[in-house]
Design brief:
disordered N terminus; Tumour Suppressor Smad4; seven-stranded antiparallel sheet; Rossmann fold; about 400 residues; disordered C terminus
Length: about 400
């Protein structure tokens, strides 16, 4: 869920269709065709050559792509659009943003600022930014703002730079992006583009891209309570309080989890699927996850009782819950989850429907600016997984 303010300096036109808009309720085959069409749109990425099977993740290459031309001949970013959620982080984003804008302008960067004013604005702005062909999209807020923006740009959109001023900044935490004006100026000036995987899910209610983590079962019920509580108070504390309230009446459910064709059936508390290690404002739910390996990581938590859940839950913040006897860690590119019972599903903490759900990964579909590598980091990253410079 995102929190919103009531001011808007510039708000692009209305509408919910466009190259980056996620598909509505339809079969996966039709959704896949629509997504493939979007990816071939103006300025989109290029699929790697060679044949691939229907379930393989989409992969990207970048020498001629938009993020490969992010900077002009003088090394400066050609056009920056800033999407600012002014009430993210309990209003912190709105209060702090002027200092970030001033820092960028003092270094000669022109910034076109778009403030969100209500639900769906960041998605619409992301769609318009992609259509406009901007070279850098600066997203100011938390994970909810990033999530909604990416549901507008879709895979292969303009590079993102995150100004982490929300209450939940799990993606920025994993990328080691700091929320200081000087740090963001350095990120824009010297940052490197890292192509992260962008997840996509489809439930009977519709489709959605997600940045960090999706889940079904207990944590989706917790996310629903947090979402329905409304307001800007997000992060770990609201999640913990909602978890305690949900646990009293929650009953574990039978799940069938299919990973690359291998089926796992058991009664479970919940299952988590994601590309990133963190969610919920700092919970280390998938400690083995790598956001650019082309595969999903899964955490399948079995038939824990209520007291045992209370014992295991604190370990999630350290990532040591994975050592419990009823916790299984899996990895795969194609994931399907179903249940004979109605089970809620969330994407990045947003309620998105109920099982069954199908997951597909757009490998490298989310270009994000990350801090420049130090000498030691550069030596460790040398090889096929190393980041690329933002400029060509």
């Amino acid at each position: 869920m995102m929190a919103y303010g009531a001011c808007a300096r510039r708000r692009p036109g209305t509408g919910s269709t466009g190259p980056g808009a996620p598909p509505g309720p339809r079969s996966w085959d039709r959704a896949r065709e629509a997504l493939a069409s979007a990816l071939r749109g103006p300025g989109g990425g290029v699929k790697a050559p060679g044949s691939r099977s229907q379930g393989d993740p989409v992969r990207w290459r970048g020498p001629g792509s938009r993020w490969g031309r992010a900077r002009g001949e003088n090394g400066r970013v050609k056009e920056i659009i800033a999407i600012v959620n002014p009430v993210a982080g309990r209003g912190r984003a709105g209060r702090a943003w002027p200092a970030f804008e001033a820092a960028l302008r003092s270094q000669g960067y022109g910034v076109d600022v778009w403030y969100t004013a209500g639900p769906g604005d960041a998605r619409e702005m992301g769609r318009r930014a992609r259509e406009r062909g901007c070279s850098l999209l600066l997203v100011t807020g938390g994970d909810g703002t990033v999530h909604e923006t990416l549901n507008g740009t879709g895979p292969g959109g303009p590079p993102l730079a995150i100004v982490p001023l929300g209450t939940g900044n799990d993606l920025a935490r994993g990328l080691q992006v700091t929320a200081t004006p000087a740090g963001i100026v350095d990120l824009v000036r010297r940052g490197r583009v890292r192509r992260l995987d962008l997840g996509y899910l489809e439930t009977p209610e519709g489709g959605r891209y997600f940045v960090n983590v999706s889940g079904a079962g207990f944590d989706a019920e917790v996310a629903r309570r947090v979402y329905e509580a409304g307001g800007p108070g997000r992060g770990a504390l609201p999640y913990v309080l909602s978890m305690l309230r949900t646990l009293r009446a929650y009953r574990n459910v039978p799940l069938e989890v299919k990973v690359d064709g291998q089926v796992h059936r058991q009664t479970s508390l919940m299952v988590v699927v994601g590309n990133s290690a963190y969610y919920g404002g700092g919970m280390h739910i998938l400690p083995g996850a790598t956001p650019d390996d082309g595969a999903f990581d899964l955490c399948l938590i079995g038939d824990l009782g209520k007291l045992e859940t209370l014992v295991v839950f604190p370990r999630v913040f350290r990532g040591t819950h994975v050592h419990h006897r009823l916790v299984r860690c899996l990895r795969g590119e194609q994931v399907e989850i179903s249940s004979p019972e109605p089970v809620a599903v969330h994407a990045d903490g947003e309620p998105v429907g109920h099982l069954p759900v199908r997951y597909r990964n757009f490998a490298g579909g989310m270009p994000v600016l990350v801090p420049a590598l130090g000498a030691r980091q550069a030596a460790a990253a040398a090889g096929p997984k190393a980041e690329e410079p933002a400029g060509g």
